[in-house]
Specification:
The complex is a heterodimer of chains A (713) and B (75). By secondary structure, chain A is of the alpha/beta class. Chain A contains 32 helices and ten strands. Chain A has a seven-stranded mixed beta sheet with strand order 2-3-4-1-5-6-8, sandwiched between helices. Chain B is an alpha+beta fold. Chain B has a single domain, classed as Ferrous iron transport protein A (FeoA) (SH3 type barrels). Classes of the chains: A alpha/beta (713), B alpha+beta (75). The structure holds guanosine-5'-diphosphate (GDP) and magnesium ion. Guanosine-5'-diphosphate is lined by residues 17, 19-25, 66, 128-129, 131-132, 157-159, 375, 506-507, 510 of chain A.
Chain lengths: 713, 75
């Protein structure tokens, strides 16, 4: 007889743990590169799914975001609870839970485990950081703990691949022998009231869920469940609460107190701690790094080195990328015939791809620095030192580094907001990060300061103006954050409680994995959109290439040898293109800023990236595609007259040059940033919002600059 | 009885109660800030806020506004 091989049915486990317990390390070691990111509408958390095979058993792992408790107070946290309990329609209920706990801080880590014990699923407890615990004199009797809890307890050190086989064996043997976890003890009155609520939940219920509904005083979970399961729960919950209150039970503290008391009872016989605590390494280091004076000194030193490193290391790499792009472009130009295809490939696609790749050095370097700081434990100290300042604009210390990073470039800056747990804080940080003056604004500042604010002023004046341009971002970003946090992102967030982990040597594989993840997700998701934007802008500057009088510009340019004539034709062509027409039609709007249509076109064309404006200015001021040197462009700008009419006054004066710089300081002419915001928020709404508010702000500020400036002239 | 934001740096003692019935109080307790636990106020950030405390054998950064909810008994 022939046996039909049944489709491999995999055993599903969900991985739970506090932040920084080594959850990601374990997940990566178990699944290798065999994982992907799950997609759940309406939430911003990334949930990874992976799988591995052990002794021909297929095991699937769902990586739940690190958390201290399974008490959902936001849609993101609710998703974790739904996935664990099998309430999410997109995922089946897991067959078991794997809880990873930090052995060097067992009691607090087991809080989450006690919640997992009430889900009605088998649980395996993996203990990480056993080496750290041992080093500080803590001894744990794993066997005794396993017997006491009645579940497998396995010591692991994922990056050293210790304990992994034992862990996998334990997972596999769960398929045949379900060892159920113990149920943490509550007082009899709590238990009977919890049972009443459990009765209402039907087949979706669990002790954990019933308990949550009873203890959760803000009603968020009850509301969500009533809607999702169409049940009526609130009256019964309120009745039970009243009953317990009348017995003198404090519903707010009973849960935590009972759980911690139970944990102590379980752990005490199995763990021995050293009698007198010696001052640890972390205490000694912290005495300096969180010191009022030295701490701040080291903080600024570290930030300064990070930035110098970022600029110094990224610059040559970015230049190489630019050169490689030019080489490929020249190569293409030499093999392809002149025409639309060549222009599409060279000016559209290649620029697009180049415009994506050019961000990689900054992303890799910044994430290199940040991952090292995070993994050695310093990141939490940085947030600790900066919290007071950031709290003034409604954010927390965790927003400081992403905002500071945006001074280099908002793209990695926005990616760096991933460390901010509070959803509103993270969004507010994302929205204001592009206001920080990034390095792409520098060419614009340098050109215009060089042309209009250098000659005839003191040697210190250009530097001062440049400083003030950067100052615009440093002042506006916190103000905007404050505004958003008190209007559209208003609400009582979670209290800012942050664990300050012990210092340790950063792990190379963790650092590498973070760099890889940030770069890869950027290339894959934002990269394609950025390249597409570039091609789109190319198209609206290329078409139509035949004038209304039947002149075919590309052909005419190819036919003439005279450089001046070519530049004039190019200008004529771009003026006639869709973007050129749009630029001319918005002239009434940009005139109050002191600009003519040419600056309007250059601004529109710089949508994919601000630095493009210099190149476009060169075209619209008749210097051809690439001005030979910036000096030439600078002189042309100084002599330019309104609408190129020699009878008109000079186009640029100090107020109009300033208005242009102010506009570029505040606008969001950066398609890449917008696409990264789209990637990180998961909707088109927030990038659209960012673009609109920043453009509005930039317009008003530029208008004021010009109009007020003219009063002094 | 003093609250955690009123005691001097370096002070040790026992947490005696947490004020409030909202999610903030619950979060504090989940993190191990519960009555009867020993604590130590280790440091404060340069501008006096937030505070660094040791509870349950780990270090926790807590803002003064939340520390004001925690009543303590100094030993
Ligand atoms: N000493 C030690 N370090 C570990 C152990 N497991 C993980 N780590 C390190 O702990 C840090 C945080 O790990 P990660 O996997 O990012 O933690 P997650 O936040 O829980 O995902 C990394 O530097 C790991 O190398 C362990 O058992 N012992
Ligand atoms: Mg992680």
């Amino acid at each position: 007889m022939h046996e039909i091989t049944a489709p491999l049915k995999s055993f599903r486990i969900a991985l739970l743990g506090n932040p920084n317990t080594g959850k990601t390390t374990l997940f990566n070691v178990l699944t290798g590169l065999n994982h992907r990111v799950g997609n759940y509408p309406g939430v911003t958390v990334e949930i990874k799914k992976g799988s591995f095979v052990h002794q021909s058993n297929a095991i699937e792992i769902l990586d739940i975001p690190g958390t201290y408790s399974l008490a959902p107070r936001s849609p993101d946290e609710l998703l974790s609870v739904e996935l664990v309990l099998g309430l999410n329609p997109l995922e089946k209920v897991p067959d078991a839970l794997l809880v990873i706990a930090d052995a060097s801080n067992l009691e607090r880590n087991l809080y989450l485990a006690t919640q997992a014990f009430e889900t009605g699923l088998p649980v395996i407890l993996a203990l990480s950081m056993v080496d750290l615990a041992t080093a500080s004199g803590v001894k744990i009797d794993f066997k005794a703990l396993s017997e006491k809890l009645g579940i497998p307890v396995i010591a692991i050190h994922a990056s050293k691949r210790k304990g992994l086989d034992e862990l996998k064996n334990a997972i596999v043997s769960l398929q045949t022998e379900k060892r159920m976890p113990p149920v943490p003890v509550f007082s009899q009155d709590v238990i009977s009231n919890r049972a009443k609520i459990l009765g209402l939940l039907g087949d979706k219920g669990s002790l954990f869920l019933a308990g949550r509904l009873l203890f959760e005083t803000d009603g968020f979970l009850a509301q969500q469940l009533e809607r999702k399961l169409s049940l009526s729960l609130t009256p019964a919950i309120l009745e039970s609460r009243e009953a317990l209150k009348s017995l003198g039970i404090n519903l707010v503290s009973i849960e935590a107190k009972s759980r911690y008391a139970w944990i102590r009872e379980m752990v005490q016989p199995c763990v021995s701690k050293p009698e007198s605590k010696v001052t640890g390494f972390t205490d000694r280091v912290d005495r300096i790094l969180t010191h009022k004076v030295f701490g701040m000194f080291f903080f600024f030193l570290i930030m300064f080195s990070m930035f110098t490193g970022l600029f110094v290391l990224a610059k040559p790499l970015m230049e190489w990328i630019g050169e490689a792009k030019n080489l490929v472009g020249q190569g293409l130009e030499s093999v392809l015939p002149d025409g639309m295809l060549r222009s599409l490939l060279v000016d559209g696609l290649l620029e697009g791809v180049g415009g994506v790749v050019v961000f990689l050095p900054q992303i890799v370097i910044l994430f290199g620095f940040l991952s090292v700081l995070e993994d050695c434990g310093y990141m939490a100290r940085a947030a600790f030192l900066m919290d007071r300042v950031m709290a003034k604009c409604g954010l927390s210390g965790k927003s400081f580094i992403p905002l500071l990073s945006s001074v280099a470039c908002a793209v990695p800056g926005v990616l760096a907001t991933r460390v901010i747990e509070d959803k509103r804080d993270r969004l507010a940080t994302i929205l204001v990060a592009p206001l920080m003056s990034c390095s792409a604004r520098l060419p614009v500042y340098v050109l215009f300061i060089g042309a209009f604010l250098t000659e005839g002023y003191g040697w210190w004046f250009p530097g001062l103006v440049l400083f003030l341009m950067y100052g615009i971002g440093f002042v506006t970003a916190p103000l905007a954050a404050m505004l958003f946090k008190s209007t559209i992102l208003k609400g009582k967030g979670a209290p800012f409680l942050m664990e300050l982990p012990v210092y340790k040597t950063p792990s190379f594989s963790v650092v590498f994995a973070r760099i890889y993840e940030a770069s890869f997700s950027f290339l894959k998701r934002a990269g394609t959109l950025i390249a597409a934007t570039m091609v789109l802008i190319w198209a609206v500057l290329y078409f139509p290439y035949v004038s209304s009088t039947g002149e075919n510009y590309p052909e005419r340019i190819a036919a003439t040898e005279n450089k001046e004539q070519q530049d004039a034709l190019l200008l004529e062509w771009k003026k006639n293109s869709y973007l050129g027409r749009a630029g001319r039609s918005i002239e009434p709007m940009v005139k109050p800023l002191g600009w003519d249509w040419r600056i309007g076109v250059a601004t529109l064309a710089s949508f994919p990236a601000r630095e493009v404006v210099v190149g476009t200015l060169s075209i619209v001021f008749g210097l051809g595609k690439d001005a030979q040197d910036e000096q030439q462009l600078l002189e042309i700008l100084q002599k330019a007259r309104w609408n190129d009419d020699p009878d008109q006054p000079l186009l640029f004066n100090v107020p109009s040059a300033l208005s242009l710089m102010v506009f570029f300081a505040l606008c969001c002419q950066c398609g890449s940033t917008l696409m990264v915001i789209r990637q990180e928020t998961g909707t088109w709404f927030w990038p659209a919002f960012t673009f609109i508010y920043m453009t509005g702000l930039a317009y008003i500020a530029a208008l004021l600059t010009f109009q007020v400036g003219m009063l002094f002239l | 009885m003093p609250t955690l934001d009123q005691v001097p740096i370096g002070c040790k003692g026992i947490i005696s109660s947490i004020k409030g019935e909202d999610a903030t109080a619950q979060r504090l307790m989940e993190m191990g800030v519960i009555e009867g636990e020993p604590f130590e106020l280790v440091a404060s950030a340069p501008m006096g806020d937030p505070l660094e405390i040791k509870v349950q054998g780990y270090r926790l950064s807590i803002r003064k506004s939340e520390a004001a909810l925690v009543f303590v008994q100094v030993s």
